[in-house]
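TA notes, week 10

Several of you asked for a full example with nothing omitted. So below is the full record: structure tokens for the whole chain, then the designed sequence directly under it. When grading your own attempts, check the secondary structure regions first.
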């Protein structure tokens, strides 16, 4: 796991940061010793889709760390100026070349510790493919259509990959293989 960020200087005034419990708070935070600005360390938010067509979904094989070579659904970090829906559609297009129309929220999966040094929230939507051509992008080495029985459970990249695919199977009325939690 990467170390949790420890800011040295205030992003508001440039003064030195210290650790203190702000007034009306209960937890020690990073607080500017000059202006009192509180720097909250928030979780990372990743957004993705289970992109579907004709009863199959798109899986991508990661070409980058962490979990290089493992499989997942198209997913990536949300930008500061987008919604979770926009991020999910953008990441799907970037990683697969496919345009999608988002369907319902499949699930939100949160973990206290992640590869990125703290909590992460992964928001996943079901999506209908509406255009484009399936092709892996630079951070993806393979992208393919797979059916429910072809999910490579032992080669999935993250806990959220397993959880979302399990929920996708259940949402589609498919059985979840024994041992998949």
């Amino acid at each position: 796991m990467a170390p949790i960020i420890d800011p040295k200087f205030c992003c508001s005034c440039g003064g030195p940061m210290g650790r203190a419990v702000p007034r009306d708070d209960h937890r020690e935070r990073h607080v500017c010793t000059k202006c009192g600005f509180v720097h909250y360390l928030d979780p990372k938010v990743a957004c993705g889709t289970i992109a579907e067509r004709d009863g199959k979904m798109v899986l991508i094989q990661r070409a980058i760390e962490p979990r290089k070579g493992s499989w997942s659904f198209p997913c990536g970090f949300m930008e500061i100026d987008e919604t979770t829906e926009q991020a999910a559609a953008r990441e799907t297009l970037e990683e697969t070349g496919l345009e999608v129309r988002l369907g319902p929220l499949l699930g939100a999966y949160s973990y206290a510790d992640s590869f990125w040094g703290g909590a992460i929230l992964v928001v996943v939507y079901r999506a209908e493919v509406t255009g484009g051509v399936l092709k892996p992008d630079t951070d993806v080495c393979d992208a393919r259509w797979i059916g429910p029985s072809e999910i490579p459970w032992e080669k999935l990249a993250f806990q959220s990959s397993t959880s979302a695919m399990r929920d996708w199977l259940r949402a589609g009325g498919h059985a979840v293989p024994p041992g998949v939690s």
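The mean pLDDT is 93. Use that as a sanity check on your answer.
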